[in-house]
Design a protein that fits this description.
nine-stranded parallel β-sheet, globular, alpha/beta, about 650 residues
Length: about 650
Amino acid sequence: MMKGPGLPILPKPQRISMHAGSVSRSALRSVSVGPPAPASLRKHLRDFAQRNGLTVGNRGDSSIVVEISEGGCPSQPEGYALRIGETITLKSLTAKGTFYGLQTLQQLLDAGSTIPRCTIEDWPALTLRGFYFDLTRQVPTPEYLRLIIDRLAAAKINLLMIQYREFFPYKGFPLIVSKHSYTPTEFKDFIRYAGERHIQVVPLLQSLSFQEHILRAQAYSHLREDRWDISGLCPSHPDSFRLYCALAEQLIAAHQGTKYFHLGADEANHVGQCERCKKAIERSSRAALVAGFSNKIVSFLLDRGLQPIMWADMLFGHLESSDAASRYSQDMFAELSREVIAADWDYWSTGPRTPSADRSPYHGVAGLTHLDRLLDKGYQVVGVPSCSSCVNAKRNRIDHPQAYANITAFGKELRRRGCLGMITTHWPTDAYRQIRWYDCFAVSPMKNEAVDVFYNVVRPGLEAHWHSIWRGAECAWSNTPRAKADYDRAFAKTFLGTSSTSYPEALTLSSFPVVKLDRGGQGASLQLARNLKMEKMRPAVGGMRLARRSAKRNAGAVTFSDLHLRLHLHELLWEEFQEELPHLDTPQLSTKQSRTLRKIVAEREVLEREFRDTYSTCYREVHLEAEVQLRFGEERRLQEQILCARQRE
């Protein structure tokens, strides 16, 4: 029988009391819900019953009784009480709390043939428990979007923030909307599906920076801060605010029921280059210009009943020189509205004072102590760690231990300070952008034929990050998150349906940095260390394959991550082979070496093809630069028409 700490429930519940005995899963026959119960809860109950082979019965003879009641459950709206006995009872104040209780019960049912008798009283530590996804380069298919929602809901996440860029179906903006954009019907179905699972979808519409999808069009070139830079929007041009409001109005209308709206405004280092902005800065300051434009958007959102969220880095003078950062920060804090929720992102820190302040976007503020300053200045704060970013991802590798430590430390500080919530971010990259990494022109002595060996950047998509995403969910929900080993076991059981912990182990083993070995000095010890890790990595990948075959659910996650690790292992084999080559620009290879080289190349091609095929089942393939070239001829006439219309006005 499972003991309390070993119950495979994620996020870890706040309070578990174990009782003697267990309940056989086969003894469960029906489930019922008493009035009042909204239609959405009744639908979830029918789905729950169908998934577990149960019937929806009457309260008197049901094995599982669900109640919305004010007695016998936590007082928090999202809390619930679950009691496992002869009859399983689930009580909550709200349909949302009942939904979260059903997620816990489902995990217990999936764990084995018996359920230990116990009482679980559970509620969230933080109000907002979110996940951020960027559609810049990876656009999920509608089917995969629904799978994402299901996985987030299972982990009791209640907010999904998306930066749509050109993949939202804006009406009247043909130069902005991508051909890969979701259709209005697809988008409407997605929002409805998320809402039914108590996840509010929050749009992020960048206000100053990262505007390539807009400013690349000649029709909008007059809004560029720098005529040669298509990323930065001019805050002084009146059309900039009008365009922002026009796009925001459509996003707001499409996200009915959402309480928040993210206006971006991070890394706006371009402000102050055009003549309009230079004159504005002479009258006040660069920080006041950024804050002033942001405040106009804040007022616009407040008028529509939304709470604005903004990245916090610019408050601290991010991207300013060290000398100017202090003054910039003072001006920004003085000018920016306190109605803004500060999205405090930090992907480096693994504790309150790590790393040193010079590695952080927050000048002179070490570790996670920038939380204190934001709170002291009167802002509500949402903490933002990351499971993948430019900080913890290099080439094909992701530093999962760094992400795990960052998420865990951030969650602890946010809970301790009573902050509003935490949003774990995922910043994807191109699926297989081709670059030349290593060059080896190996001339075969038999055929005198050159072989060009290269590697592509193949970072895994969202599938390889659920270990970190669910860790973020646990750190936002539970006051006492699990220790690493316990979390790995619970994740393997709950997410993959297996007792093997090879999946998180393989993720960890695949995260060590690439070292270019020399041929003397410490090379031998580095080679030994790498070989030791390879000895561990091979069985870990094998274990992942076993986990894939035994997984009850979500086998696609294991398949995708397994492919990524096989690619990584293949790179190590290539590096070892390369180290054995002589020091020649065109090394003469033996027949055996030539045969090995060709085998490596052929294996790599097969792996990459398999990776791309698997990738395309989850994501629409998007290549922005290629798309710009393809669409430019078609859109040029439209741009000219818009320019002519503006001149006539």
